[in-house]
């Protein structure tokens, strides 16, 4: 009972923080820069427990946060030149060259896990900025609250719907080797709830948000993309934890585990949503 209360309180604070941060571009960038850093730090700490792995946690984390901030500055127009990414590229080069001097047992492992922290965590989080800052027809850049927030709303609705439908109707396992609790019935049920939510979002956004230019079919398609890739993101993180032999990625969020546990679905859903939107619209 006590754990349930702690979990509920943490969940309320978590959802409130994510929702309110999208009301302002500054708070959005600030919060997710912190989230990026904490998640990269958590991930590199986990992989450093593996045999023959010694990733530079500090520089990897700083590099991941810088990539997020550089992306935010560039797509928002605050930094008008792509040269802002040069320090990040130099950091990546340094992380490769530094292995020449560390005398590590297996430098290939270090290179692989270092780049994985950037490609799996830092880069996906950075795509939030491309969803939030959109160039208009007149060349100006507008901040969209609803587009990036909708990805998280769809993920939350999908998780809730999948849990309810899976508990009631789940008989066929979705991916028993990685996540025995997930079922096809639950995933389909979650997807139906997301489609309904996407229609509601489309109806109420009207002309009040930069994301309102999206038509109903595009919103429905976005919902499906988030459901599919959010589920895959959850499974990927489950496979990662099974491989390294841990139950939770951390304990920073009481009752909910670590940052990676909370944002696993979004790490696949965010870039997939961006690719989808760029494919069907002119953002």
Reported for the largest beta sheet, the result is: 2 strands, antiparallel
Structural class: mainly alpha
Total domains: 2
Helix coverage percent of residues?
over 70%
The best one-word shape is globular
Q: Helix segment count?
A: 10
- β content, as a range? under 5%
Low-pLDDT segments: none
List the strand order in the largest sheet.
1-2
Give me the count of strands.
Answer: 4
Average residue-wise pLDDT: 90
From the alpha carbons, calculate the radius of gyration and give it in angstroms: 19 Å
Distance between the termini: 47 Å
Structure write-up:
The protein is mainly alpha-helical and 283 residues long. It contains ten helices and four strands, in the order H-H-H-H-H-H-E-E-H-E-E-H-H-H. A hairpin with a 3-residue loop joins strand 3 and strand 4. The longest helix has 29 residues. The radius of gyration is 19 Å and the shape is globular. The model has no long low-confidence stretch (mean pLDDT 90).
